[in-house]
Every structure is written in C-alpha cells, then in structure tokens.
Amino acid sequence: MESTSNATGSTILCFIENLEAGGAQRQLIALATMLQRNGYKPVFVTYFHDNFYAPLLSSYGIRHVELPEQSKVGRIASFWKVLASEKPDAVFSYSESASMILCVLRAVRRFRLIVSERNTTQEASAMERLRFQLYRLADHVVSNSTSQAEYIKHNVSFLASKTVVINNFLDTSHFKPGHPGVTPERRMLVLARITPQKNTKRFIQAIKGVKDDGCRLTIDWYGQSFEPYHTECLKMIEELGVGDMFHIHPAVSKVEELYGSYDALCLPSLFEGFPNVVGEAMSCALPVVCSDVCDNRLIVGEENGNILFDPCDTGDIKAKIEQFCRLDSQQLKAIGQANRERAVRIFDPGKFESQYLKLLQP
Question: How far apart are CA 77 and CA 84, in angstroms?
Fold first, then answer.
C-alpha cells in the first residue's frame, strides 16, 4: 500500500502496558511497522517493565518511551507529559487501563484517540461500565473480535456507531507449512500464558484422564508464567503424575519455529478475543483443538474437521483430545491442508492495514 499523502511527519503514540510475550504486543508492533511504512512516526509507550519484545521493536527502528511504574494517579501525570512532549496527531491504545486514562486526557487535549478491545467482556463489573462510559470520549473503538463487537452492540449501544471490527492480521507467507509429518506418538502444542483465563488447571486434569485411558501423547505448553498460578499448576502436574506427558516451557519470541514440530495446536482458554495462535497454526497447516468460545468457531470454520470443546467440562476436554489422538495421518494431513487454505483466504494483512489507516483520516 502506498503512503498516505498526509502521513509524513505525523506522530502516532502506541500505548500498551508492557512488551511481554503476548499476542496484543505482537499485533501492535506489526501495526506500528505498517504505520511506519506509510510515512507515520510510531512511538511505543509502556508503563510496566516487561521488555520481552523490546529487541524486536528496536530491530524495526521504532522508538520506545518507557515510563516509570507508578500508581494510577502518577500514571495520569506521566501520560500527560508524554502527550505534551510528543504532540501526537493520533494515539492507539491496546490497554484497557491506558485507554481509560487517555479518554480522560482527551477531554482536555485534542488528539485522535483509537482505543482497542482485545478481549471479550465476561461480566459487566463497575470498572467495565466505567470504561465504556469513558469511551464516549474516544474517536473510535476497535474490537479485534466479532464477539466483543456484538456485546457492545447489544449492551453498550451508545458506542455502536463508533465501534469497528478489525480482526488480527496474519502474514501467511511467514507462517507457512513446515510440518515433517505425523509423529508416531502424537505431539500437541499449546501457546498461552499460564493464567486462569487460559484454563491450565482443567487442562491438566483432562490430561490425567487421557493418561488413565491409555492414550499416549506429548503436550508442550509454552508461555509466560504468572504466580502463584504457575506454581499451583506445577504442583498439580506432580500430584496427578502427568509430568511424563505434559511439559511447561518459558515463552519464546520466534513461535513460528515451533509449529512444524507438532501434530496439532490446542488452546483451552475460558474466553478469548481473537487468538493469534489459532490463525498461525492454521497457516502452518496444523489441525486445531480448542475451546468453543468467542470467535474460535468463526476462525477455524465448522467444515474443516478441527475439534472444539467446552472449556468448563474436563470430561469434554479429555474426550476431544482422545478424538484427536484417534485421527490417522491422512485425516490430520487433510485437516491441516484445509486450515492452510482457509488461513490464506481469511487473514489479509492488507485489509488490516487499510482499515487502520482509514481510522486516521480526517
């Protein structure tokens, strides 16, 4: 896409909590590179010190303003100083707390503000309701999932007119098949943080049932750990005796190097926004075994043979993992090929780029 005529010299601030190993971080970095290619000057602003993706950001020549960790009141002052010093033409926020502060500051300082909903609302808490009220001051609300956009449409109708769905993009030329063939013992990959949302404990319990039924497979879970949940999960693995099948590893930055060594991706989350890893696995021609929540069914499609389960039902998780183990090599190959074709068809970086650039137009 050619650079927009009014982009030259325009500063775009990109607010996110930190640069941890998360899907939102990768998407925002990708968006910043697209802005840069179109003549804008993106600047990242973070306020918690987890810099897993800082080297990647630096490799693109994108400036990073790292604010001190402060109370919410102190954060307001820091945000104000950044806005005053950078004088941005527009601001993107991929953080709920940052979005709320920026909406308040938007009331007294003029800049185009685009806030992003990266998850799905599970409970209309007081904080959720306050956030949506503050969004009245934003120019646009971007939901990366149809599920959240539908929630806003039906429950926060005053935001419906300014809400737009922009699904996560995927570079299918980067995430491409490299599968060596189905392994004699099935290997399943999980890429997710170790948190209650990702449903690790129920998943471990399901693996215990799979083992007891004599189904053999290896599961590798890569992701950033959060305490005390991570330690509790490790204790459960030991107590249930599934350490020979289930392994937890630290997060990795080059996830594309993992997909080719597995027979399927699993994502057992209780809820999601628009999970990057599902699309990436599909693009790499892997079958997907995942929870039937939010946009997951829309992403994988109902016709390709992927397997979905109820994430709150340990028995259903177990049954669907065993269903995967019973698939033969030809079935797995056919599902993977259908997933690759679907990924190429539905994940379009150009559409993602043009939709965001449109939001920056007067």
Answer: 11
Is 64 in contact with 54 (CB distance < 8 Å)?
Answer: yes
| Helix ranges, 135-228 (H) | 146-155, 200-212
| Pair 91, 127: CB distance under 8 Å | no
Phi-psi region of 170 (alpha: psi -120 to 50; beta: other; left: phi over 0): beta
Dig out the tokens for 151 from the structure: 């929630």
Compute the distance between CA of residue 187 and CA of residue 263 in angstroms, rounded to an integer: 5
- CA-nearest of 108, 164, 162, 154 to 135 is 162
With 0-12 / 13-18 / 19 or more C-beta atoms within 10 angstroms meaning exposed / middle / buried, residue 239 is: exposed
**What SS3 class is residue 217?**
strand
CB count in 10 Å sphere of residue 362: 4
In sign, the C-alpha dihedral spanning 176, 179, 182, 184 is negative
> What whole-number distance in Å separates Cα of residue 358 and Cα of residue 276?
23
Please enumerate in sequence order all residues whose Cβ is within 8 A of that of 34, keeping only pairs 6 or more positions apart, or say none: 349, 352, 353, 356, 357
pLDDT at 1: 37
Using only the alpha carbons of the chain, give its radius of gyration. Answer: 21
Backbone φ, ψ for residue 270 (5° rounding): -75, -30
- DSSP assignment of 324-355, as one string? HHH--HHHHHHHHHHHHHHHHHH--HHHHHHH
For 17-47, how does the pLDDT look when each residue is reduced to its tens digit (9 = 90+)?
999 988 899 999 999 999 999 999 999 999 9
Cβ neighbour number for residue 173 with a 10 Å cutoff: 9
Q: What is the pLDDT of residues 210-261, one digit of tens each?
A: 999 999 899 999 999 999 999 999 999 999 999 999 999 999 988 888 999 9
Q: What is the SS3 assignment for 31?
A: helix
Q: How many CB atoms lie within 10 A of CB 248?
A: 19
Three-state SS for 314? helix
Does pTM surpass 0.90? no
